[in-house]
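Open question from group meeting: does this chain pack into something compact, or does most of it stay loose? Before anyone orders reagents, we agreed to write out a predicted structure and look at it together. Recording both the input and the output here so the notebook holds the full record.
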Amino acid sequence: MSSGTSNGAVEAGMGPTLTGRGLDKHFGSLHVTRSIDIGVSSGEIHALIGPNGAGKTTLLAQLSGELASDGGTVHLNGDDITDVDLPGRVQLGVCRSFQTSSPFPDFTVRENVLLALMAPDPGIGLFTRAGVDRRRNEFAAQLLEQVGFRADPSTPVTELDHGATRQLEVAMVLASTPSILLLDEPMAGLAPGEVEGMSALFSRLRDDYGILLVEHDMDVVFSLADRVTVLSDGEIVATGAPAEIRADQRVQALYLRESDV
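Structure tokens returned:
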């Protein structure tokens, strides 16, 4: 197992690959991420774990383009996308979900997916009626089926339980046809049965996407992840296979100290 600030990078030539090198972020005097090297490639789930305040969400924001970094670079398939903003990175195939639910509450499930399908398309006018586009409706139905959504797509979002809402969010992320998924605590608030279903979904998605997963549920992390990176105080403590991370004494000491698992 490797350690230090270079241990999260991935090698090129593994399919679509997102890498951050030397990523740094300050908020005033607070140094949140510190010269971090990290990456994820198609066909793998790379879990990012660490105590609250470790810098995990900030790092996802830097990789997604939501936050500009104070130092370092971001590359997609070897191309420098450091200066590309969040909408531009979505167009390139880098998409992020968030800790809190984000569907549009005034719309139905189907309408939310259709809006997500329309968002990246510059040829769609503001007043286009997405509901009359058969091709988009069929694609929306396929996305909902892909994520295991079983409720009526005409259901208002406000009537969904938390698990169904999370499934809808994943379908909306997939609507932008990404190659890299940045997922921020997708299991938060789910019941045990819902966690199992969502875990099975991500296991299926692994074949077609690169997934960087921030997650506090260690059972999920160790059952799903191909690699695990541990972050503490904005720095990488260790990166390795789940079994290596589980046995690492530095990681055990960190989590025992923080009572995070």
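Observations to bring back to the group:
The chain has nine helices and ten strands.
Strands lie at 17-27, 30-41, 45-49, 71-76, 79-80, 94-96, 180-184, 210-214, 227-232, 235-240.
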